[in-house]
Design goal:
Elements (H helix, E strand, L loop, with lengths): L1 H7 L22 E3 L4 E3 L3 H6 L3 H8 L4 E4 L4 E4 L6 E4 L2 E3 L12 E8 L11 E7 L1 E16 L3 E12 L2 E14 L3 E9 L4 E29 L2 E25 L6 E6 L2 E17 L2 E22 L2 E23 L4 E20 L3 E19 L3 E16 L2 E16 L5 E12 L10 E3 L4 E4 L7 E15 L2 E13 L2 E6 L7 E7 L3 E14 L4 E14 L6 E2 L2 E11 L2 E8 L3 E3 L6 E3 L3 E10 L2 E8 L7 E8 L3 E8 L6 E16 L18
Parallel strand pairs: 5-8, 25-29
Antiparallel strand pairs: 1-2, 2-7, 3-4, 5-6, 7-8, 9-10, 9-41, 10-11, 11-13, 12-13, 12-40, 13-14, 14-15, 14-16, 15-17, 16-17, 17-18, 18-19, 19-20, 20-21, 21-22, 22-23, 23-26, 24-25, 26-27, 27-30, 28-29, 30-31, 31-32, 31-33, 33-34, 34-37, 35-36, 36-39, 37-38, 38-41, 39-40
Length: about 675
C-alpha cells in the first residue's frame, strides 16, 4: 500500500494564476470641513518643532487664519479677531504660550459656533488636547531679542489630581528701547492765522517691565459639568519714558528745544469664573463672571523753553460683568437659546498739574438675546436678535442709550472638501470712558484734548462671505470678501475752539467709516509634507466721510514657508507691509515691510530656535501717519523697535509627569491693563 499512499499525498500544480500585488499606502485625511467646523490634524513634525500654541498654528498654515511669526499674532484671513479656546474653554493670546504642542490632537476652526461653550464668540480656534488622569507637565520658556534689548521668561505648570486640575503661571518681560519718538509737521488754522509747528525727537528712551501671575482651579472631569476659577495679578511699570528734541513755529512762539517725561505704573487684580452644565432632556446652561480692580498712575511733563505743561493722573477703577445662557435642544437639528449679559463699573480719575480736574464715571449695561440654531448634515447656522441698554454717569450727568442688534450666519458643506460660509451682523459701538471724559487737558503749546459726555453709540453693519476648499492633504485654499460699515462714527475732530483760541481735539459723532476686503490664502505641501508654502494676497478698500474724507485702496501680501529635516526645522516669512485708515483718529497709517528667517532644533522636551528679523533694515521707523482736516493737518513719522533688525533666541524645555487621558484646558488670563486717562 505504501506506493499508493505516497502517490495520494503528492500535490499537483495549482491551476489558479497568482498575481503579485504592489504596495498599497493608505493616507488618512489630515483636514476636512463640514457645515459646522473645519478640522486640521497637526503632523508629528509640526508638533515637535512648535514651542507653543501660536507657533503650532504658524506651522500648520491653516488657510482661514493669518499668523504672523514675528509679532506672534493670530487673526482670521480677513484680519478679524480670533477667540482662542482649549477644549472649549476660553483663553487669551498670551496664555496659549503655556500650551504643550505635543498634547494637541487636532485644531478646529469655527465661524459663529452654536455650541454654548464657545460663549457666542464669532471666530474660534479650538485646540483639542490630551489631558492627565494624574500629574501633568511643567514648561520653562525664555526669549531674548538682541540688538533691541527686550525679552521675556515664563514658568507654566499643570497638575491634575483626582477630579481637580490646577494651573500656575508666572511670567515677566522687559523692553529697554532707546529709539522712541517722532517727527511731525503740523498745520494749525487758527482764528489769528495759520501756524506751522514742526518737531522732532533727537534722543528718546523707554524702560518698561511687566509681571504676570495666575492660579486656576478646575473641576472638569465630566463632559456634563465643568467649573473653573481663576485669580490673577499683573503689573506694568514704566519708570523711564522720556524724549528730547526740537520744536519750531512759523509764528507766535520762538523755536525751542523740548523735553518730555512720561513715567507710569499700572496694577490690576482679576477674577474669572466659568460654569457649564448639561441638565438633561436637552437643557444646558453656561455662564461666566469677571471682575477686576485696577490702579493706574501716570505723569506727563512737557518742557519747551520757559513753557511747562504738567499733567498728573491717579486712576482707580473696578468692573464686574457676567453672562448666563440657557439652551434647549428641541431635536438633534434645532436648538433654542437665550442669553443675558449684564455688568457695570466705576472709575475715579484725579488730574493735577497744569489742568486740575476730578472725573467720576459709572457705567451699567444689560443685553438680552434670543435665538435659534440649526444643524443638518450639510447645512448649519443660527439667527439671533436682542436689545441692549446702557447707562453712563459722568460727573453728575447721566446718559442712556438703547439699541437693537442681530446676528445671522449660514454655512453649507456639500462634502468634506468644500464649504461656504455667510454671516451678517448689525450691532453698535459704544464709546469708552476715555472718549466721554469731559475734562479739557492741555497737550502742547497749541493743542488741547477732551472727551465728549454727549457722545452717542455708532451703528455697525458687517457681512462676510468665504469659501474653503481642501482637495487633498497637499492643497488648502480659503477665499473671502468682507464689508464693514460704521455710521455716525465716533472720531477725534479738530476745531479752533480750545482755550485762548487754540486747537481742540474732541471726540464727536462725525461721518461714516466704510471698509471692505477681498483676499485669499493658498497653501501647498510638498516632499511628503516636509515643505509647506503659503501665500496670502489681499486688497483693502476704505472710503470715509465727515471731517476727514479718504478714499484709499491698498494691496498687501504675505508669504510663509516651513521646512522640516529630521529634528531640525526652518521657516521663512515675508510681508509686503500694510496700511490702513484708522477709524478712531482718522489718520492714514503706512507701515514698513517685514521679513524673517528662522532655524531650530527640538528633541526630548527641548526646543531651541534662532530667528533673524529684518536683517537689512537699520531704520527705527514704525509708521508714517497722515491726517488732513479742515482746521488741522499732521504728517508724522513714529519711531520704535518693531521693524528694526534683530536676532531672537528662544529656548523652551518641557517635562511631563503622570498619565494622559481625555481632555483638558490651559490657563486663561490677560496681560493688558485698561485705562481711561486722557493722553
Amino acid at each position: 500500500m505504501f506506493p499508493f499512499i505516497t502517490q495520494g499525498q503528492t500535490t499537483g500544480p495549482d491551476t489558479i494564476k497568482v498575481k503579485e500585488l504592489g504596495e498599497i499606502t493608505v493616507v488618512a485625511d489630515a483636514q476636512l470641513t463640514s457645515a459646522t467646523k473645519t478640522v486640521y490634524i497637526p503632523t508629528g513634525n509640526q508638533k515637535s518643532t512648535a514651542s507653543d500654541g501660536v507657533s503650532l498654528l504658524s506651522r500648520m498654515n491653516i488657510p482661514q487664519l493669518s499668523v504672523n511669526p514675528i509679532t506672534e499674532t493670530v487673526k482670521t484671513a480677513d484680519n478679524q479677531g480670533v477667540s482662542l479656546f482649549i477644549n472649549f474653554h476660553p483663553v487669551a493670546d498670551e496664555d496659549v504660550s503655556g500650551l504643550n504642542p505635543s498634547d494637541v490632537k487636532r485644531v478646529e476652526y469655527l465661524d459663529f459656533p452654536t455650541d454654548p461653550r464657545f460663549q457666542r464668540a464669532q471666530h474660534v480656534v479650538n485646540f483639542i488636547t490630551h489631558a492627565y488622569s494624574y500629574g501633568g507637565y511643567t514648561k520653562l520658556s525664555g526669549k531674548e531679542r538682541f540688538m533691541i534689548r527686550s525679552g521675556e521668561a515664563s514658568v507654566y505648570s499643570k497638575f491634575a489630581y483626582r477630579k481637580m486640575e490646577y494651573d500656575v503661571m508666572v511670567s515677566g518681560d522687559y523692553d529697554y528701547n532707546s529709539h522712541i519718538g517722532s517727527v511731525s509737521d503740523e498745520i494749525y488754522r487758527l482764528e489769528p492765522g495759520t501756524i506751522r509747528r514742526t518737531s522732532g525727537t533727537e534722543t528718546g528712551k523707554q524702560h518698561q517691565r511687566g509681571f504676570y501671575s495666575a492660579l486656576r482651579a478646575s473641576w472638569n472631569k465630566s463632559d456634563n459639568l465643568t467649573f473653573r476659577n481663576l485669580v490673577s495679578y499683573r503689573r506694568i511699570n514704566t519708570p523711564i519714558n522720556h524724549t528730547s528734541g526740537y520744536v519750531s513755529f512759523s509764528s507766535l512762539y520762538p523755536s525751542e528745544t523740548y523735553h518730555t517725561e512720561s513715567p507710569s505704573t499700572n496694577n490690576a487684580v482679576g477674577w474669572d469664573s466659568e460654569l457649564y452644565a448639561a441638565l438633561g432632556r436637552g437643557w444646558s446652561i453656561n455662564g461666566n463672571c469677571q471682575a477686576e480692580f485696577a490702579g493706574n498712575n501716570t505723569s506727563s511733563n512737557y518742557y519747551a523753553g520757559t513753557e511747562s505743561i504738567e499733567n498728573l493722573a491717579d486712576e482707580d477703577s473696578w468692573f464686574l460683568r457676567g453672562s448666563i445662557q440657557v439652551n434647549k435642544s428641541l431635536s438633534d437639528k434645532f436648538t433654542l437659546f437665550s442669553n443675558v449679559l449684564s455688568g457695570g463699573g466705576r472709575t475715579h480719575i484725579d488730574y493735577t498739574g497744569s489742568s486740575n480736574a476730578v472725573n467720576r464715571f459709572r457705567q451699567a449695561f444689560t443685553g438680552i438675546t434670543v435665538g435659534m440654531s440649526l444643524n443638518y448634515q450639510k447645512v448649519s447656522g443660527s439667527i439671533d436678535g436682542g436689545y441692549a441698554f446702557e447707562s453712563n454717569y459722568i460727573n453728575g450727568k447721566t446718559m442712556d442709550d438703547r439699541y437693537p442688534f442681530t446676528h445671522i450666519n449660514l454655512q453649507y458643506a456639500p462634502n468634506q472638501r468644500n464649504s461656504i460660509s455667510l454671516w451678517f451682523q448689525y450691532a453698535a459701538f459704544s464709546p469708552d470712558a476715555t472718549m466721554k471724559n469731559p475734562n479739557i487737558i492741555r497737550q502742547s503749546e497749541l493743542m488741547y484734548i477732551s472727551g465728549n459726555p454727549d457722545l452717542k453709540c455708532s451703528r455697525n453693519t458687517s457681512a462676510n462671505i468665504s469659501y474653503t476648499w481642501l482637495p487633498s492633504n497637499k492643497w488648502q485654499l480659503s477665499a473671502y470678501a468682507t464689508m464693514f460699515l460704521i455710521s455716525n462714527r465716533q472720531i477725534a475732530v479738530y476745531t479752533p475752539d480750545g482755550p485762548d483760541g487754540m486747537m481742540l481735539k474732541k471726540y464727536q459723532n462725525d461721518g461714516d467709516y466704510n471698509h471692505g476686503q477681498i483676499g485669499a490664502n493658498l497653501t501647498g505641501k510638498f516632499i511628503d509634507g516636509r515643505l509647506s508654502i503659503s501665500v496670502s494676497p489681499r486688497m483693502l478698500l476704505y472710503k470715509t466721510t465727515g471731517s476727514n474724507s479718504i478714499s484709499y485702496y491698498p494691496f498687501s501680501a504675505s508669504l510663509n514657508v516651513n521646512y522640516y529635516l529630521g529634528r531640525f526645522f526652518f521657516n521663512g516669512y515675508y510681508d509686503t507691509g500694510s496700511s490702513y485708515v484708522d477709524g478712531e483718529n482718522a489718520f492714514l497709517r503706512k507701515m514698513p515691510m517685514s521679513y524673517s528667517v528662522s532655524a531650530g532644533w527640538s528633541s526630548r522636551g527641548w526646543n531651541i530656535q534662532l530667528s533673524v528679523v529684518n536683517p537689512f533694515q537699520s531704520s527705527w521707523k514704525l509708521s508714517e501717519d497722515t491726517l488732513t482736516t479742515r482746521w488741522y493737518d499732521n504728517k508724522m513719522t513714529q519711531f520704535g523697535s518693531d521693524y528694526h533688525r534683530r536676532i531672537s533666541l528662544t529656548v523652551t524645555y518641557t517635562f511631563n509627569y503622570g498619565k494622559k487621558v481625555s481632555q483638558t484646558g490651559e490657563l486663561s488670563g490677560e496681560k493688558k491693563i485698561s485705562t481711561s486717562i486722557l493722553k
